[in-house]
Amino acid sequence: MISDYTILVDGLVRVYGEKAAVDGVSFGVRKGEIFGFLGPNGAGKTTTIKVLTTLIPPTRGKAIVLGHDVTEEPLKIRRRIGVVQQQPSLEMFMTVEQNLDSSGFLWDIPKEERSKKIQFLSELFGLKDCLKTKGPELSIGQRRRVQIARELMHDMDILFLDEPTLGLDPQVRRTLLDYVKKRASEGLTVFFTTHIMEEAEYLCDRVAIIDHGKILADDTVDRLRSRFGTGEIIEFTLAEKGAELRRILTPIEGINAFYEPQEEDEFFRISTDDPSTVLPRLLQALFANGQHVTTINIKESTLEEAFLRLTSKKEEEA
Amino acid sequence: MNSMLKLLVRDIRGSLLMSPLFLASMLVSPLIYIFVLGFALGGAIPSVVSGGISMSYVLFLAPGIIVSQFLTGGVLAGASIWFDKRFGMFEQILVGPFTKTQYIASKILSVALQGLAMAFLVLLFTSPLLSGLSVNALGILYIAAAWMLGSLLFGSFSIVVSTAVKTDEVLNVVFNIIMPPLLFLSSTFYPLENVPAFIRALALANPLTYAADMFRFGILGLQTSYLGYEVLLLVVESVGMFLLAAWSFKRIKI
């Protein structure tokens, strides 16, 4: 039933200049669902969120949020959503408390309720000690926490979170994810973008993987893992980079796929169904080609592997 | 509360919290102009004759400086839009329950109120100089028109600037290059009757002159021979600048 969906996107295209940042994307998100939108940087995640939150119009295609078309009734949508944008935002001249209060005021929350929410959210996100601190004196992590707490001052039907955990320490990150889970269990729909796979696995009911503006897969986390992340992963680091590993590894039997290190990550990864025979062959081949392995692990297949497989396949095609 | 008014309250709250010291410093220049320049030059210029009325220099100067506060209000509004863009609040507000029109209208109203507050404070300090003046209903109308049109014009102008520039430096440079000529090539500091022709020509093309002349007519009864044209030009220019601001605001890249 169409009415089950809080977000329905059909053939969405958004072009900047000559380049399509989002290129014919279609998906639906149901009420109370936590929908993960995964993709490398520049994949089209933020552009999609900007269209769905009515900041920019689509070039082509349709996007219906909470039953309203994003181009025809944007204000009706904005009245019922919350958005934590990827870029930082802060009322720089205000204290943390004033930031939260100002947001509540803008959303028409009565004074008394604002005070209660400020108490609750500042406790939840560890902002109690800096309630009287002004913007410039806050750390990057604190500013991010204020940004998130500020958006939770008002009630909403959909919460858009665009890489919200950037700059958060692990405890606060977990607090946020748990809080989002709890709210979703109460009926809140969550649209969550990230490139951190553990977060998506922990949080999301369903994920879509997007790259170069196109959706490569859209399924539950478990099904994606089993569809694209078969077997196990051998990950290793080398003392020296720059070797032509693909050439060295191609002759080895039993390797399903090979992935170069991703950003800020030194691990080469191999997916295989038979690590016990592939591992000795791999070490032998590396040794024969003068490569010195510094670390090596065998891991069970994860969403990350599905992600890597899908996005790197796309890159090879491109 | 109306959405636009909520944005207005937010804006004024932001300006007041910016820095009390900064706000106080905004009052220093106008008061120095009036009390130092006004009285010092007043010694050298025993009386100013303009619009057929003879008066002390400081009495001529004070209304001009009060009107220039509407320009200051405009700059403050431009700065507040710039800060909204820079600190991410601009996009955050636009994904909230507000329209771009409400946002821009709140900024213009904020300019008007901040300009009025600044002008009122300067007026308060200079009230001993202006005591004994009586303002009739027509005068109040002219004063109000100078305030509203001046605020609309300068507020819209600073919106155009703040939406166009990309860095702090450029914003500062633009305001620093534009403010002094706007202020000094106008009838704020001197009557235009006896100045060299090129200064007169430039000053007559400056909307601050129109606002200052309207305000002076309202408060002193001093009427230039071209006051009607000035009113008309100020209306046309402020509406035109507002339309330009709305257009540039619509095109702003998100």
Provide a short characterization of the protein structure.
Chain A has 318 residues and is α/β, with parallel strands linked by helices.
Attribute tags:
heterodimer, A: 318 residues, Rossmann fold, 2 domains, four-stranded antiparallel beta sheet, 14 strands, 28% strand, B: mainly alpha, two-stranded antiparallel ribbon, 2% strand
3D structure, described in words:
The complex is a heterodimer of chains A (318) and B (254). With 318 residues, chain A is an alpha/beta fold. In chain A, 36% of the residues lie in helices and 28% in strands. The model of chain A has no long low-confidence stretch (mean pLDDT 89). Chain B has 254 residues and is an all-alpha fold. A two-stranded antiparallel sheet of chain B has the order 1-2. In chain B, β1 (48-50) and β2 (53-55) form a beta hairpin. In chain B, α5 packs across α6 (137-164) and α6 packs parallel to α10. Chain B starts with a helix and ends with a helix. The chains are: A alpha/beta (318), B mainly alpha (254). The interface between A and B is medium-sized, with 26 and 24 residues.
